[in-house]
TrEMBL record:
Residues 33-42 have a biased composition (Polar residues). The lineage of its organism: Bacteria, Bacillati, Bacillota, Clostridia, Lachnospirales. Residues 1-24 form the signal peptide. This is PsbP C-terminal domain-containing protein. Keywords: Signal. Residues 27-67 are annotated as: Disordered. Residues 49-60 have a biased composition (Acidic residues).
């Protein structure tokens, strides 16, 4: 029975990574093309190509997701300077390696903070989304996911957090799809409400349900990056004990250097 509970927790948390139906306000591309006399067309084109390559390299570097935005593992926790918070967990929690190709027995913090791991996570963020931190104590799961507003348009930004929460709150269909065909989902409820998180007002998408009469409680908080609104991080908490889920926000605090 315990294995079944853990399986449902893990499956639903995996489903949290899939945010759909979210839109932002993207800017269009400017037409910077120009015409020249036939005698100078070739040289202008060569200079233009060189300039375009240089500008492209600069733009790629500027658009590169930073290590600070992905955040770093620390002993029994996580720090994210870009989003401005940290997670400090008691010894009952186990950190899960975010490098899915890490060797068995490898140090979780060291492996999760390796250069290759950051490069791997960066590539996934640019494709849309990825999980950057996961930990659990067997009955409560904490998962942090970074989402890009659009993988196709670097000008697209996220909506306001309230709108994101309202569009992203788990539905009964989402739970059934995540938990699998053997799940027996009953007494499903969801809502969005304003809460205090990290000392500020944010919006939480909350949901509860039972599977085979076992209660589950979940909450997701969506934080749009203040420096770059093309990105957000979702704080997802799911557990079997309502008090533990409600109090999990106490594990989060404002990041200071």
């Amino acid at each position: 029975m315990k294995n079944q509970k853990v399986k449902i927790l893990a499956l639903v948390m995996a489903g949290c990574l899939c945010i759909t139906g979210l839109t932002g306000c993207g800017g269009g591309e400017k037409d910077t093309s120009s015409q020249s006399d036939n005698g100078t067309t070739e040289s202008v084109k060569e200079e233009s190509d060189t300039a375009d390559e240089s500008e492209s390299d600069t733009a790629d570097e500027e658009n590169k997701v930073s290590d600070d935005m992905i955040g770093r593992y620390v002993s029994q926790g996580y720090e994210n300077p870009s989003f401005g918070f940290k997670v400090s967990l008691p010894d009952t929690y186990t950190l899960e390696n975010r490098n899915n190709i890490a060797l068995s027995g490898a140090d979780v913090v060291e492996s999760s903070n390796s250069e290759s791991t950051y490069d791997y996570l960066r590539s996934l963020v640019e494709l849309g989304s990825t999980t950057v931190f996961t930990a659990n104590d067997g009955t409560t799961y904490i998962q942090l996911d970074i989402q890009k507003a659009s993988a196709l348009n670097d000008e697209t930004t996220w909506d306001e957090e309230k709108t994101i929460a309202e569009k992203s709150v788990m539905t009964e269909e989402d739970i059934k799809e995540s938990a699998g065909e053997d799940a027996q989902i009953t007494e499903f409820q969801n809502n969005v409400e304003e809460i205090t998180f990290l000392g500020e007002k944010h919006y939480a998408a909350q949901y509860t349900f039972k599977n085979n009469d076992v209660p589950y409680y979940g909450v997701s908080v969506y934080l749009v990056n203040e420096q770059d609104s093309r990105y957000l991080i979702s704080v997802n908490i799911l557990g079997l004990d309502l008090n533990a889920v409600d109090q999990a926000d106490q594990l989060f605090s404002v990041y200071t250097k």
